[in-house]
Amino acid sequence: MFAAFPLLALPVLVYNLIALTLNGGFSAIDASAHMTDRLFNIRMTSNVDWPVSLGDLLLAAALVVLFIELLKSTTSRRIAIINHSFSMILFIICLVEFLLAPAFATSTFFLLTLMVLLDVLAGFIVTIVSARRDIDFAGDAAA
Questions:
Q1: Average pLDDT, integer, range 15-41
Q2: Number of folded domains in the chain?
Q3: Cut 0.85: pTM above it
Q4: Could you give the CA distance from residue 46 to residue 67 in angstroms, rounded to a whole number?
């Protein structure tokens, strides 16, 4: 049953927890400022500091999760269809939050929503292509 759970729900949940526990509540300015505040610096070999924010860390983690989700979408088991359906529901939730809640009108959440959309599209496209290939092989065997 764990395979049916869309893993991109985890970064979205983390963003929700961060955005909803801010002192300012649902304010877009507070959420954007909190996501872009510098957490630490990394000294680069070019002697320049690279400031890393909470939004940067969240997006980096979400990209790793998106990669795992794309690998999961290549399976042609029945559970993959359930995963795609849950991913579509997650995308609808993200889209509604992005459009209606001020704390979610940030670039960080937009990019998270875009990653969820890419997961949905990739999942359905991979499933359709693999189903078409299965049908083509079945047609060749009958001839």
A1: 78
A2: 1
A3: no
A4: 30
